[in-house]
Write a structure and sequence with these properties.
Length: 323
């Protein structure tokens, strides 16, 4: 975090801070390898311009601390993008892909679904780490003008997340502690919103921990949708069976053994499946997330179970995903 930003990132950061006019960086003055790679590729340059425009539009509508938090997040993201893409075989293609994803986040574009009636905006929390402070990088979403119970519920959940953030280390430590969380909009319709959160936390132990959880909101009623709202016991048995088969195959492939190594594997899988906060739901597919330690040792990592919406609709009480 303390290293100097690459020239392209620094120029854009100045632009975003209002020091320069709101225009894309000048390719005639491109000096770094990354600048030259972007300017030499029309797709990369167009994606860069679109991303900058999306950021400028977003930040212009922000007030108070969020205005600075958004700028801090953009600067950090640009640095990370440049460092990641400079090592790729095609830096320009990497930049174009990264810019496309960033533009989607800045404009709150859902990964699937027809979209919402009301406007979502990204919400940022940033803190640079030090010997005493935790490095915090959090990006959530909130409704700009929450009017319905469902919209108010999402904002409440975002506020609760922010309130739970720890900023200070338990004791001074030269190691870099981190608290990261990113929300993505898996599915959005006027009636249903599915958020998937990924995170990583390191607080001075032997290793850090990754996390993932889903938040599924019925926007009509303002309720969090649970597993029993969608599936009965018979349906769960079918889902459990499918996930057990997938997980067993993955364990064998990873060299982590088969079900004979853990007689309780089926039970553990069932416990995860029946909690919808372990699910990511999209328009054509859903995934069940088996986090670290949930069905195996930490070293085994994370497992997943992929299910098509077509097969889930054969089992569900209501059409999926709700529209």
């Amino acid at each position: 975090m303390g290293q100097e930003l690459p020239k392209a990132a620094g120029a854009l950061a100045a632009l975003l801070a209002g020091i320069l006019p709101a225009s894309a960086f000048d390719c005639a003055k491109a000096g770094t390898p990354m600048e030259k790679a972007i300017c030499a590729d029309p797709a990369a340059k167009a994606s860069d311009d679109a991303m900058e425009s999306a950021f400028n539009t977003l930040r212009a509508g922000l007030t108070g601390p969020q205005k600075q938090a958004a700028l801090d997040d953009q600067r950090a993201w640009l640095k990370q993008r440049n460092e990641t893409c400079k090592g790729e075989k095609s830096p320009a293609a990497c930049v174009a892909d990264a810019n496309g994803a960033r533009t989607g986040m800045l404009t709150a574009r859902p990964e699937s679904g027809p979209g919402l009636k009301s406007r979502l905006v990204p919400y940022f929390v940033r803190q640079s780490g030090s010997r005493d402070k935790i490095d915090v990088a959090v990006q959530l979403y909130k409704f700009a003008d929450p009017a319905t119970p469902g919209e108010q519920l999402l904002n409440k959940k975002a506020d609760e997340d922010v309130a739970s953030i720890t900023y200070k280390k338990d004791e001074p430590d030269d190691r870099s502690w981190s608290n990261e969380e990113t929300w993505s909009i898996s599915y959005a319709s006027p009636d249903f919103l599915s958020i998937w959160s990924t995170g990583y936390e390191y607080s001075g132990g032997a290793h850090g921990g990754a996390s993932g959880h889903g938040l599924h909101i019925d926007l009509r009623t303002g309720r969090i949708v649970g597993f029993s709202d969608l599936f009965d016991a018979k349906a769960q048995a079918e889902i459990d069976k499918s996930c057990l088969k997938q997980v067993k195959a993955e364990k064998v492939e990873r060299g982590a053994g088969d079900d004979a190594d853990d007689p309780d594997l089926a039970k553990k899988i069932s416990e995860v499946v029946k909690d919808l906060s372990n699910w990511s739901i999209k328009e054509k597919e859903a995934s069940v997330y088996f986090g670290q330690y949930s069905i195996g040792a930490y070293a085994e990592g994370i497992y997943g179970c992929d299910l098509t919406i077509a097969e889930l609709n054969r089992l569900s009480k209501v059409p999926l995903p709700p529209r």
